[in-house]
Design brief:
The chain is of the alpha+beta class and about 450 residues long. About 20% of the residues lie in helices and about 40% in strands. The strands form five sheets. Strands 3-2-1-4-5-6 form a six-stranded antiparallel β-sheet. The chain starts with a helix and ends with a strand. The model has no long low-confidence stretch (mean pLDDT about 95).
């Protein structure tokens, strides 16, 4: 890791008078194996490395990158970035991040992987076996996958930033096929950890089996307005889309329905939402953002009130609020803006508790067309869902061919329950069960 930082610093130190230079250097290794019928269907073990260089001169920005750390190429990348800057449109807000005095959090995000490739293959095969043995109605497994990786990155700038980080993660995922006659349903399970020893294959397999088998016999639902309980992963997907509307980039471009609502009540008072990459439990945790600034919690929504937008250095300057250290990037791109690790404030109760309190409604287990079904400007939402009816405070028959039509704004305002059943997802976000009242559910 020190090697990467030294390399980045050497590039940044070549800044000329009146010029700002930033070097982002990264490398990593990924392993993935997919099992099918007790054998390896696909296996990938690959490494990658690269550098991205940004140059800013008189408000003009240039960028260049290369997928190698070869010394002979680094000078060319810097020269290309300088050349590209001459064609840039001068903007007063262009410029690199500068140290702001916020100390980096002390996080332990790396665990050495002790398993051999053969042992990792065995995990994928065992996951498939557990799913097939989970229920006689399980007829196959679409994908049983084990994957892990280690990533390292370093950032150095002529403005005084110099930082490096390293992290590791491992995950398993599986899609189970359940059949009853000609009907086939699919259910998925997923697990994540810093290293393979933290993965519980039995829990992941059981989840996939349950999600597949409980949807057998699903039928359409009559159109109605009802309370909708959002499965943790469905709720996380919706919250992630909301967070995308809370970025400085979306606000400045007029692409957010929340653009002028700072300080207003935009959600139920029971909702709090934080972007917090300093939480070591998150698999999106990091000590610094994509511009080398120390990560810090950003309170987006507190008790339903919109408190902040996410910013990198450029959007923070344009808006006059400053950065929230929310720059996201790879070595092939300049910094964008995004959430690093979304964490909803925990409420009370489990899924069963919320279902019991709702009484009658619909549990949404999966959503189709979520991203294409949301208008990012207006927030209008129309998506297909499937799940289980809730009747008398208990889960009932499975339903399919159902559409919910509402808006993200209304989903937030009409929240009636936020669970305490927090689960971490591979992407780094946390999720909890949520319930929304009076949602239009269209069926037959």
């Amino acid at each position: 890791m020190s090697e990467l930082l030294e390399l980045a610093q050497r590039i940044a130190a070549q800044a000329r008078p009146g010029e700002q230079v930033e070097a982002f250097v990264a490398r990593g290794n990924r392993f993935s194996v997919k099992a099918y019928r007790g054998e390896v269907e696909a296996l990938t073990s690959a490494g990658s490395a690269g550098v991205g260089v940004r140059v800013v001169v008189e408000g003009r920005q240039g960028f260049a990158s290369a997928g190698t750390l070869d010394e002979s190429v680094l000078h060319e990348v810097l020269a290309d970035a300088r050349d590209n800057a001459t064609f840039g449109e001068p903007q007063p807000w262009n410029g690199l991040a500068e140290p702001d005095g916020v100390p980096e959090p002390v996080l332990h995000l790396y665990e050495p992987e002790l398993l051999t490739s053969e042992a990792k293959v065995a995990l994928a095969i065992e996951l498939e076996r557990l799913v097939l043995a989970g229920d006689p109605r399980i007829t196959g497994v679409r994908a049983a996958i084990y994957g892990d990786g280690v990533g390292e990155a370093a950032i150095a700038t002529s403005t005084g930033i110099a930082t490096a980080s390293r992290s590791s993660s491992a995950s398993v995922s599986v899609s189970a096929l359940a059949a009853d006659g000609d009907e086939v349903q699919i259910g998925s399970g997923v697990g994540v950890g810093r290293f393979s020893g933290e993965l519980d294959l039995a829990v992941v397999a059981a989840d996939a089996v349950d999600r597949a088998t409980r949807m057998l016999g699903a039928t359409p639902l009559t159109t109605r307005r009802t309370t909708v309980v959002l499965d943790r992963r469905v709720a996380a997907s919706i919250v992630s889309i909301v967070a995308g509307m809370l970025t400085g980039d979306a606000v400045l471009k007029g692409r957010s329905p929340f653009a002028h609502r700072l300080g207003e009540l935009v959600a139920s008072p029971m909702l709090t939402l934080v972007d917090d990459a300093t939480n070591p439990a998150s698999y999106g945790a990091d000590t610094s953002d994509g511009e080398g600034l120390a990560t810090r919690p950003t309170l987006l929504i507190k008790d339903g009130v919109l408190r902040a937008f996410l910013h990198n250095t450029v959007t923070g300057r344009r808006s006059g609020t400053g950065t929230t250290a929310s720059a996201v990037r790879g070595y092939r791109s300049t910094p964008g803006v995004g959430a690093l690790s979304l964490v909803p404030g925990e409420g009370t109760g489990s899924l069963d508790d919320i279902v019991a309190a709702v009484g009658d409604g619909l549990l949404v287990q999966s959503v189709s067309g979520l991203h294409s079904g949301v208008n990012p400007v207006s927030g209008d939402l129309s998506v297909g869902v499937q799940g289980l009816l809730i009747s008398g405070g208990a889960l009932g028959r499975p339903v399919r061919e159902v559409t919910i039509a509402t808006s993200l704004q209304r989903l937030l305002v009409d929240l009636v329950a936020v669970g305490a059943d927090l689960e971490w997802l591979p992407g780094g976000d946390a999720c909890v069960t949520m319930a929304v009242r009076d949602v239009m559910v269209s069926g037959i």
